[in-house]
From TrEMBL:
It is found in: Cell membrane. This is Diacylglycerol kinase. One of its GO terms (molecular function) is ATP-dependent diacylglycerol kinase activity. It is an enzyme of class 2 (transferase). The chain crosses the membrane at residues 34-53, 59-78, 99-120. Belongs to the bacterial diacylglycerol kinase family. Its main location: membrane. It comes from Paracoccus cavernae. Gene3D superfamilies: 1.10.287.3610. It is a multi-pass membrane protein. It comes from the Bacteria. Keywords: ATP-binding, Cell membrane, Kinase, Lipid biosynthesis, Lipid metabolism, Membrane, Nucleotide-binding, Phospholipid biosynthesis, Phospholipid metabolism, Transferase, Transmembrane, Transmembrane helix.
Length: 121
């Protein structure tokens, strides 16, 4: 017989997994930029597997690619929140959205730089 606390924790884990999957699916359907970065990731993962790289290089390229998707998810979360709080124009709302957008750009630059350094070096 499974203890109650384990049942409780498993239930929480199942909810968290369900909500995360829901968040991924909704963002994928609504955000073109997430789909575009998804395609870039697919190409990057295929190339990283085909080109002769060592395990560490492959892991770095794949992890940085996935981090762009993470940044894109946070970017969407922030945009949705700003628009939920108010649709009025306010410099703080603009700065929040721009900072979130910059996070995606910086992560993408990190991934691009890693590819350049690994291919050149
Ligand atoms: N509430 C706001 N107040 C001030 N500036 C904003 C606000 N919302 C968005 N901006 C500015 O506009 C940029 C684009 O934001 P966003 O992609 O949400 O588009 P939008 O201007 O809200 O219009 P739409 O949603 O129709 O594309 C932001 O990066 C920010 O600089």
């Amino acid at each position: 017989m499974m203890p109650d606390w384990i049942k409780h924790e498993l239930g929480r884990l199942k909810n968290t997994a369900t909500w995360s999957w829901q968040g991924w699916l909704t963002t994928w359907r609504n955000e073109k930029s997430l789909r575009q970065w998804g395609v870039v990731n697919l190409i990057s993962i295929i190339l990283a597997c085909l080109i002769d790289l060592d395990g560490g290089e492959r892991a770095l390229l794949i992890a940085l690619g996935l981090l762009i998707l993470v940044a894109e998810l946070f970017n969407t979360a922030i945009e949705e929140n700003v628009d939920y709080v108010s649709t009025e124009r306010d410099p703080r709302a603009g700065r929040a959205k721009d900072a979130a957008s910059a996070a995606v750009a910086v992560t993408a630059i990190a991934g691009g730089l890693a590819w350049v350094v690994i291919l050149i070096g």
